[in-house]
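Data availability (excerpt). The following record was deposited with the supplementary files.
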Amino acid sequence: MTQTIPFLSPDSLTFPPVHTALQEPNGLLAFGGDLTEKRLAKAYSLGIFPWFSEGEAIMWWSPDPRGVIYCNEIKINKTLKKQLKKQNVTVTLNHAFEEVIELCADAPFRKEGTWIVDEMVDAYINMHQHGLAHSIEVWSDTQLVGGLYGVAINGYFSGESMFYKQSNASKIALVYLVNLLKSENIKFLDCQMLNPFLADMGCYEISREAFIHQKAQALKKQLPSDFWQPRQLYLNHE
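Predicted structure:
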């Protein structure tokens, strides 16, 4: 039986219930609407994110299962541990959001194109300006060699994309992000979809139902007003 995908009206921020998302393609929930910060904030608060290619309508997703990294279970292999101990890079928070998202969009390993189209870039820069999207930057001297960005609402962080120009630089960004989240006892990082890179870092899949429950708990956690202020980050070595 064919299932109709709801069209989102620009006049309403309402989304369909996430359990109505398609099984194939996994998680497709709705299309249409826009990428204003209000709609994006509403979507992320519900565990929904946009993902579409150039020339397509905006499509909204809530996959089942969902990829997550529990902050206390992140995997750091021997090579990465050695690199972290060398401290031959500097890691910052929210120092170069626009550069990070542009580099994520243009990452050379995405040879078949990117979902970070110009419309998405503009939308997340706007989110950043409204204090809802954040970046981690990895620097070698004055060169930006790795980073990631994502959306944060209270204690819930949904990672969007990452890039690297130097070996392990994106992994370093991820370790520092998790360390930052742990500093406020945030339990998990939403990775949206599992892939081999994230699996190597400890990401695994949980049911949508479990994810929605854990997300709801994270949304209740209030963070200090200066938590996302631009600054240099340091690791708490355990």
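Summary of structural features: The longest strand covers residues 143-153.
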